[in-house]
Design goal:
Blueprint: H1 2-10, E1 18-22, H2 31-44, E2 49-53, H3 59-65, E3 72-74, E4 86-90, E5 103-108, H4 112-127, E6 131-139, H5 144-155, E7 159-162, H6 165-172, H7 188-212
Parallel strand pairs: 1-4, 1-5, 2-3, 2-4, 5-6, 6-7
Helix pairs in contact: 1-7, 2-7
Length: 213
């Protein structure tokens, strides 16, 4: 039902390419994992995604070169308009330049030392008038210190992707959690719903940004 509602409400105008930046200057926050799984979720909706991997480590590209992704990943901005409905920029770590795109998705792990970098980067983007979607990754609410951060961010509208072996299992085969091989994985439905909710918000906010420009 959730999938049907998303498809009915969002797949209205596909003429303009939707641009999303996955950005957080801190490394190891789940940017590449989020980028490829959001792309896979968009395929499920009938969209054609393109991931632009701007990370020198090339994590997204490694997945693509494995031959298991149902979408394209490239390492630079194409000179011509790509044949895509949604373009996802997977930004590199240590990149403190706020992306040009109006919509920024900021993943972070809830540990305190990770949170400080996120706040600094968030404020920079906020000052430039960016629309920001916060995604807490690898959330472990059984840890008191992390639970406090998670609850605070949730109250501010952040999405939470719970800590799960689903992602490491998918990573071991260079596939996304939407790959049919993952259909029987433990709590796969819950993890897919989390990603789908984030994608739905991205698409809605993208439409709002376009209408306000």
């Amino acid at each position: 039902m959730y999938y049907i509602l998303i498809k009915y409400n969002i797949l209205i105008t596909m003429k303009l390419i939707k641009l999303i930046s996955i950005w957080n200057p801190k490394g190891g926050q789940g940017k590449s994992t989020l980028a490829i799984n959001l792309a896979a979720a968009s395929v499920e909706l009938g969209l054609k995604p393109l991931v632009i991997c701007q990370d020198p480590q090339g994590t997204s590209l490694l997945y693509y070169k494995s031959g298991n992704l149902p979408f394209e990943v490239i390492d630079s901005v194409p000179s011509n308009r790509p044949e895509a409905d949604i373009v996802i920029f997977d930004h590199q770590a240590s990149d403190w330049e706020v992306p040009n795109n109006n919509l920024i998705v900021m993943p972070l792990k809830p540990a305190r030392d990770q949170y400080a970098t996120y706040i600094d980067a968030y404020r920079r983007a906020e000052l430039l008038g960016k629309r920001i979607i916060t995604v807490v990754t690898d959330g472990q609410e059984h840890r008191a210190s992390e639970k406090q951060t998670i609850n605070y961010l949730k109250n501010k509208g952040a999405y939470v992707i719970a800590s799960s072996g689903v992602f490491s299992r998918a990573a071991s085969e260079y596939i996304t959690i939407f790959d049919p091989k993952m259909n029987k994985a433990y709590k796969i439905k819950e993890r897919r719903i989390e990603i789908n909710k984030i994608l739905a918000t991205i698409l809605i906010k993208n439409e709002e940004t376009k209408n306000n420009d």
